[in-house]
Amino acid sequence: MISRHADLAALSRAVADELAVIVPSAIKARGVAHLVLSGGSTPKRLFEELAQRGRGALPWDQIVLWFGDERTVPADHPDSNYRMAREALIQPLGLTRVHPIDGGAADPAAAAAAYEQQIYAELGELPTFDVVFLGLGPDGHTASLFPGTPALSVTDRICVANPVDSPVTKGKTTRITMTARVINAARHIRFLIAGADKAPTLAAVLEGPRQPAHLPAQLIRELECTWYVDTAAASQLTKI
Length: 240
Ligand code: 6PG
Prior knowledge:
This protein is α/β, with parallel strands linked by helices. 31% of the residues lie in helices and 20% in strands. It is built from six helices and nine strands; from the N terminus they run βαβαββααβββαβαβ. The strands form two sheets. A six-stranded parallel β-sheet has the order 1-9-8-5-2-3, with helices on one face. Strands 4-7-6 form a three-stranded antiparallel β-sheet. α2 (44-53) links the parallel β2 (33-37) and β3 (63-67). The longest helix has 23 residues, at 8-30. The radius of gyration is 17 Å and the shape is globular. Residues 38-42, 68-69, 81, 135-137, 141-144 line the site of 6-phosphogluconic acid.
């Protein structure tokens, strides 16, 4: 489903409003809501919106925060997804039920395996997150599932270290990322996409030929997926 909004601020408010429905329902059913945060810059406005609404707006004591991917940098590095979430949401609301990925680990593969064990320990053998938030890169990547990278074809893991060599990452690096397998197992998948620079990629992902090796966002199953987009990002959509 596509959910169109005038701009990033309106999109972020709408997502926060939907969380006010999904989260209490998850807690009523299972006593806890497990949310997977995405990285990059787009979700920062959502995090700020949630912080502005205050701790009483959601049952934060029953919410557990995870990360869909992380750069291989320390937690206080400007590129760290955890740092952005900590500054915009976690610290302002004093949240404690948070599982950062150890981006600063000397061995990213070991850090990915350790994160995997944390997920299995909290969610059981068939991890089903309540909400997985995702972004979309200009090359069609989502989380750190980049075009042509090994993680795209991994089906027996839920979190891996993924070697990437892309202009988007300014050359060679390793990212730690959840795999499509665990993302697609989520009860609700929510893409947040804003800005005219995303318009051609969004149109290719949603309306172009299916080529997930080149557009990894196409690995994400349509069912239970909502694409929150602003007018600029949706400007090249013709069929929906
Ligand atoms: C990351 C994200 C990545 C991001 C897209 C969009 O670690 O960078 O997980 O998948 O969502 O690159 O990034 P922007 O929101 O900055 O455009």
